[in-house]
């Protein structure tokens, strides 16, 4: 069984004026990301949107010291970007939404439980940032025994070097299938 994880494809991470944007790189993957999401929904596969949810007043959260405020709870920056927002609105009952506090979609969430109760063994990862949230989610998934598949044209970063490094790491260290 398989599942698609869409990680942080929000206004703050993708829009030109987003707070921590991947900019053109993130915008360039929109078509592929939306097509893959729709494909999984049509197949009635498990689709998860794992979305950062931050409180800039949380003095204990390390990201508040590493990055500018982004994906702040209650702001438009947390809204899904572009056509993915439409796909979500049209398919809410088929998409499982996770608010996440850390880079990994597994950290502090019930994602592993939801996947295991559905018999999911294969995870297909999409979205941003390849070398941060997608990477940390992939490492946790690997450590939990999931088979990884990365849609190369549906992941992006604001750091081209980090993006390429992460793709190699997925394949060479985590044994992920990189799908063109």
What does this structure look like?
The mean pLDDT is 96. The chain has 180 residues and is of the alpha/beta class. 42% of the residues are buried. The two termini are 21 Å apart. It has 8 helices and 6 strands; from the N terminus they run βαααβααβαβαβαβ. The longest helix has 14 residues. Strand 5, helix 8 and strand 6 form a beta-alpha-beta unit. Helices cover 38% and strands 22% of the residues. Helix 7 packs parallel to helix 8. The radius of gyration is 15 Å and the shape is globular. It has a 6-stranded parallel β-sheet with strand order 3-2-1-4-5-6, with helices on both faces.
- In whole angstroms, the N-to-C terminal distance is 21 Å
Helical content (DSSP H or I, runs of 4+): 25-40%
Overall mean confidence score, pLDDT: 96
Shape: globular
Low-confidence stretches: none
Radius of gyration: 15 Å
The description of the largest β-sheet is: 6 strands, parallel
Number of strands: 6
Helix and strand pattern = EHHHEHHEHEHEHE
Q: State the secondary-structure class.
A: alpha/beta
Strand content: 15-25%
Strand order of the largest sheet: 3-2-1-4-5-6
């Amino acid at each position: 069984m398989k599942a698609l994880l869409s990680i942080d494809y929000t206004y703050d991470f993708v829009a030109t004026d987003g707070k921590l944007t991947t900019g053109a790189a993130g915008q360039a993957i929109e078509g592929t990301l939306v097509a893959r999401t729709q494909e999984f929904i049509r197949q009635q596969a498990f689709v998860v949107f794992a979305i950062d949810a931050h409180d800039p007043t949380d003095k204990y959260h390390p990201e508040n010291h590493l990055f500018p405020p982004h994906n702040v709870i209650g702001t438009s920056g947390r809204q899904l970007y572009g056509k993915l927002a439409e796909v979500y609105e049209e398919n809410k009952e088929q998409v499982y939404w996770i608010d996440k506090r850390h880079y990994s979609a597994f950290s502090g969430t019930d994602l592993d439980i939801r996947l295991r109760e559905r018999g999911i063994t294969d995870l297909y990862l999409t979205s941003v940032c390849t070398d941060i949230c997608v990477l940390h989610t992939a490492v946790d998934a690997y450590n939990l025994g999931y088979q990884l598949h990365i849609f190369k044209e549906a992941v992006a970063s604001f750091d081209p070097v980090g993006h390429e490094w992460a793709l190699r790491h997925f394949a060479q260290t985590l044994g992920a299938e990189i799908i063109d």
